[in-house]
Write a structure and sequence with these properties.
The structure holds 2 protein chains of 2 kinds.
Chain A: H1 12-19, H2 33-42, E1 44-48, H3 52-62, E2 68-72, H4 97-108, E3 113-117, H5 126-130, E4 134-138, H6 142-154, E5 172-178, E6 181-187, H7 210-214, H8 220-236, H9 246-263, H10 270-277, H11 285-304, E7 313-317, E8 323-327, E9 342-346, H12 352-361, E10 367-374, E11 377-380, H13 385-392, H14 399-402, E12 408-419, E13 422-434, H15 439-448
Parallel strand pairs in A: 1-2, 1-4, 2-3, 4-5, 9-13
Antiparallel strand pairs in A: 5-6, 6-7, 7-8, 10-11, 10-12, 12-13
Helix pairs in contact in A: 3-11, 8-9, 8-10, 9-10
Chain B: H1 5-8, H2 10-26, E1 28-32, H3 36-48, E2 52-56, H4 63-66, H5 81-92, E3 97-101, H6 105-111, E4 121-125, H7 129-142, E5 145-152, E6 155-161, E7 164-167, H8 186-193, H9 202-205, H10 210-224, H11 233-245, H12 253-260, H13 263-266, H14 273-280, H15 292-305, H16 325-356, H17 366-374, E8 380-383, H18 387-392, H19 396-404, H20 406-428, H21 439-456, H22 466-475, H23 481-500, E9 509-513, E10 520-522
Parallel strand pairs in B: 1-2, 1-4, 2-3, 4-5
Antiparallel strand pairs in B: 5-6, 6-9, 7-8, 9-10
Helix pairs in contact in B: 3-5, 3-23, 8-10, 10-12, 11-12, 15-16, 16-17, 19-20, 20-21, 21-22
The chains are: A alpha/beta, B alpha/beta.
The structure holds zinc ion (ZN).
Active site (chain A): 211
GO molecular function, one term (chain A): ATP binding
Enzyme class (chain A): ligase
Chain lengths: 449, 524
């Protein structure tokens, strides 16, 4: 037992996978102690979300050979988290999730460093996300997933033949759960479908029509939404409803009860009121554990190549028996997010202001309040005020000049997308081409028109 | 300071309710071996608030354990693993009674089988074949639920062993509503008669619920077609066209809903084949030893054959649909009244049967019978073979089917190899690839072992790929944290289903395939 590889080691079990050659492994797999050390030294992983999935992910990744982890979450700990978010205790209620989660895992797993970020994902500069080797998502919102996806995909560059350049690919591993069901997926931008390519997997939630709430309520949820969406404003005109304010919730509940009585409808309870108003998704420890474990395992495989990777979407359903299914979804060749970028043709005289106005009308973009960056340089920023002021003077300058007279290049814009009556923050990659610079370009355009 | 359980457990109460939670809080769980697989299983159960846990492990914490088990840390080295894991678990939820016993589970199975009878359920992790078989017999005899979980490199398994598990609240995601559109009872028909589909007032027209539209249209159709409902494709299409023709404006959501729901009119009458199987089960011939479930099944059977005229008791709820409040609420009342009437008949029959078999006629509560009636179309009965039976007499056709089916062949390969490594260990005192330096020998030995195992099972071994055998040796009995968390997560999920008697537990053996995630449940 004096052999270096059999001496007592923390990575006793992991070594079997990382040090030994294998037959069913990824193309980059290069087994050995160097691989193990490289994972520790060079691989940096961002966990987005420190909730039910995030807590599990941090633990799983810390015990999967990674030592450089960061976690971002804007939420504070609540009592109702304690049935599954096992890194939190009752005395932690009210504290930032990211900070407590990072601290707890570091306390138990020595050698692991976790940097917490207690803020919104949109608060970080885009470049922040480029620092990581892999981004792992433990989120419960479609909007947040969509945002991180657009950020990660924006780093992807294409060569002149429109083939993705692997070196610019930012892998993502995404998990999600609801009750006894969940999914885990691997997103290799440019190679496998991104979140937006398969957005149809997440149909938008159906809202009750206002006329049903106002005129023909039929069930308890209708009465609750009437109190929440209509009656509240009638009575409190102007004062915003705060779902975390117990007095507000009680008021809605009482109003819903009154309305239900008026219409002979049963089933309004306080718990249902909270569920409907806050759109609570039931969540349990076991499903989160399963999905996070699958995500952590895939992260290890992407980073090390120690086995094949999930290709590319796993669903887990434990409601009736146990069903685990892998589906190989395909990319949307016209995807706005992970494709080579929307092509925008401009005259060299177009100013930055004109360009921003154009984005708002562009049928594929419908992007308002745009901030524009070119090769990491801020051309115009809507916020914060300091940056806005600093970049305001650029608005009247031609974009061509601002882009260093490049005839074509990639520009990143962030802003608000207005699609289907819904506003979401997003990031888009645009391929800006200036017309009339060289003859060949003009001929191409003529041919395509 | 203690958290209000209602708030702490809010997110799970929305899944299994107060009843499920009470069942969890009454349960006492025993864990054998507290490596990461066992520890992670219990973690999920402790968070959910099980009554008590007893952790059994005879080993002491080594450095290697720190790399795969979150429940131990540097200060645990050299100490009892059961003690350290138990202490961490207790920290997660002070409402749980946590105990540990520093003893080797294998020894306990050998020397003190009576020990296991005190538990609701035993979670047995990382046991080898021989101990699994012995423990299975002990638990089966004592009526203790048992679940096996094992992580092994990038593979692993979860297997439930319970003689019989019956479920009333199976809570399926998608299930056809019980509307009886093609077979309305008198009160529903009478209610439909009071409503005129040809009402000209537009607001009334667009607020007639689709249930009424379909009942009336179906009646019209049968009158014109000698008493039969639309059955051919063309007839179904025609039926939908007839509904469409009744619309007086394009924005009539109720008519759109009626067209979409028209398949409910075409649904077959009577009970499903699954329910038929249950009422035909030998257990529905009840005696003094019958469980409450089977007593109620016996009553249900009588109901279906008599008052129900081939149908189960009405569920009594209707989905939301476009309607005026008044019509909707009245319709709801009609369904509820019929469900209540059906329930009263079943209740009477239950009480009669109880009396007949010499039990207190009131030993099954009204609430229980009501829930049984409401869920009678969704009842589930799960039975599990003894592990020993499965190991010695697996279903050969199923075995062959899995081996030759591309979707299943890797999982089947792992199933065989997971058993082969135990045979290997019994012969060579270590698992294949457990130590470096003997890989090549171990690969060929494991191959021989696996092939002879397949032969013993009456199967051809040529389908086991060299790649899979080498991978199994590479795994070298390692317990990777992520795999253990996955296996433990599934094991805890199944434990919850067994204890709450809600949802449907998995039916066979889950074989985890951590290579490409094409895991499968094998029924052998
Ligand atoms: Zn895409």
């Amino acid at each position: 037992m004096t052999d270096a590889t059999t001496a007592p080691s923390r990575s006793r079990d992991l070594d079997k996978l990382l040090l030994r050659p294998g037959n069913l492994v990824g193309p980059i797999f290069d087994p050995g102690t160097q691989l193990r050390e490289d994972l520790k030294e060079y691989v940096r992983i961002l966990v987005v979300g420190a909730g039910g999935l995030g807590c599990e992910l941090l633990k799983d990744l810390a015990l999967s050979g990674f030592t450089n982890l960061e976690v971002i979450d804007m939420d504070r700990i609540e009592v109702s988290n304690l049935n599954r978010q096992f890194l939190f205790r009752l005395e932690d209620v009210g504290k930032p999730k990211a900070e407590v989660a990072a601290k707890r895992v570091m306390q138990r797993v020595s050698g692991v460093n976790i940097v917490p970020h207690f803020c919104r994902i949109e608060d970080k500069e885009i470049e922040f996300y480029n620092d990581f080797s892999i981004i792992v998502l433990g989120l419960d919102s479609i909007e947040a997933r969509s945002y991180i996806n657009s950020v990660a995909c924006s780093f992807l560059e294409y060569d002149s033949d429109d083939n993705p350049r692997d070196i610019t690919m930012k892998p993502m591993v995404d998990g999600g759960t609801e009750g006894f069901k969940g999914h885990a997926r691997v997103i290799l931008p440019g190679r496998t479908p991104c979140f937006e390519c398969t957005i149809w997997l997440f149909p938008p939630q159906v809202k009750f029509p206002l006329c049903t709430l106002a005129e023909t309520p039929r069930n308890a949820a209708h009465c609750i939404e009437y109190a929440h969406l209509i009656k509240w404003n009638e009575v409190h005109g102007g004062k915003a409803f705060d779902p975390d304010e117990p007095e507000h919730m009680k008021w809605v509940y009482n109003e819903a009860v009154k309305r239900a009585e008026l219409f002979g409808i049963q089933g309004v309870t306080y718990s249902l009121t909270q569920g409907v108003v806050k759109n609570i998704i039931p969540a349990i420890a076991s499903t989160n554990a399963v999905i996070s474990a699958a995500c952590a395992l895939e992260t290890l495989k992407i980073a090390s190549g120690c086995s094949k990777t999930l290709s590319n979407y796993l669903t887990y359903n434990g409601v009736e028996g146990l069903h685990i299914k892998v589906t190989e979804f395909v990319r949307d060749k016209d995807c706005l997010v992970c494709g080579p970028g929307v092509l925008i043709e401009l005259d060299t005289s177009v100013t930055l202001q004109k360009f921003i106005d154009l984005l708002e009308e562009h049928p594929r973009l419908l992007l308002s309040k745009a901030s524009v960056t070119h090769r990491g340089k801020n051309l115009y920023m809507q916020a914060p005020p300091v940056l806005e002021e600093m970049t305001r003077s650029n608005l009247s300058l031609p974009l061509f000049e601002l882009m260093g007279k490049a005839t074509k290049d990639i520009v990143h814009v962030t802003g608000i997308e207005n699609k289907d009556d819904k506003k979401t923050s997003c990031l888009r990659k645009l391929r800006v081409v200036f017309k009339g610079i060289d003859g060949i370009m003009d001929m191409d355009m003529a041919g395509g028109a | 300071m203690a958290a209000e359980p209602k708030t702490k457990y809010d997110r799970q109460l929305r899944i299994w309710g107060e009843q499920g939670q009470t069942a969890l809080e009454k349960a006492s769980i025993c864990l054998l071996n507290c490596g990461p697989t066992g520890s992670e299983t219990l973690k999920n159960l402790v968070l959910g608030g099980v009554g008590s846990i007893t952790v059994i492990d005879g080993s002491r914490v080594e450095v290697g354990d720190l790399g795969n088990n979150f429940m131990v840390d540097e200060s645990s080295i050299g100490q009892s693993k059961a003690k350290c894991v138990c202490a961490f678990l207790q920290e997660l939820n002070d409402a749980v009674k946590a105990k540990f016993i520093e003893e080797n589970p294998e020894a306990l199975i050998e020397t003190n089988p009576a020990f296991f009878t005190q538990f609701t359920l035993v979670v047995a992790t990382q046991l080898v074949e021989d101990s699994m078989i012995k423990l299975d017999r002990i638990c089966r005899e004592a009526g203790v639920m048992l679940i096996f979980a094992r992580s092994y490199g990038l593979t692993g398994l979860v297997r439930i062993s319970v003689k019989e598990h019956t479920v009333i609240e199976s809570k399926p995601d998608h299930f056809l509503d019980d509307l009886r559109l093609n077979n309305p009872w008198t009160e529903l028909k009478r209610f439909a008669d009071t409503i005129d589909l040809n009402v000209t007032e537009p607001v009334a027209h667009k607020h007639t619920p689709y249930v009424i539209i379909l009942v009336k249209m179906a009646e019209e159709w049968t009158k014109a077609h000698g008493g039969s409902l639309p059955s051919s494709r063309d007839e179904k299409k025609e039926f939908k066209e007839l509904i469409k023709a009744r619309m007086i404006a394009i924005d009539e959501d109720n008519y759109k809903e009626a067209i979409e729901a028209s398949f409910k009119v075409f649904a077959p009458l009577g009970i499903s084949s699954d329910l038929q199987k249950i009422i035909n089960d030998n257990c529905s011939e009840v005696g003094s030893n019958s469980s409450d479930f089977w007593v109620m099944v016996a009553a249900l059977k009588d109901f279906i054959l008599n008052e129900g005229c081939g149908e189960a008791p009405l569920e009594g709820s209707i989905p939301d649909m476009t309607s005026s409040t008044e019509l909707y609420v009245n319709l709801q009342k009609i369904y509820q009244a019929k469900a209540e009437a059906d329930f009263l008949i079943v209740e009477r029959r239950v009480r009669e049967i109880l009396k007949k078999i010499g039990r207190d006629p009131h030993s099954i509560s009204k609430t229980m019978i009501k829930s049984f009636c409401k869920n009678s179309r969704k009842l589930k009965v799960c039975r599990y073979r003894l592990i020993e039976d499965e190991f010695n007499n697996p279903s050969i056709p199923d075995l062959q089917k899995y081996i030759t089916n591309e979707e299943y062949s890797v999982a089947m390969g792992f199933y065989v190899l997971l058993r082969a490594v135990d045979r290997f260990a019994a012969n060579y005192n270590s698992f294949p690839g457990q130590f470096d330096g003997e890989m090549d020998d171990d690969i060929s030995r494991l191959k021989t072992t696996a092939v002879s195992l397949l032969n013993d099972l009456g199967c051809n071994g040529s389908t086991l790929t060299e790649d899979l055998i080498s991978e199994m040796c590479r795994f070298g009995a390692s317990e990777l944290h992520a795999v253990a968390a996955f296996i433990g997560g599934i094991a805890s999920q199944e434990v919850i289903k067994l204890i709450t008697q809600q949802f449907v537990p998995m039916s066979g053996t889950l074989i985890f395939n951590g290579i490409d995630h094409k895991s499968q449940v094998l029924a052998l």
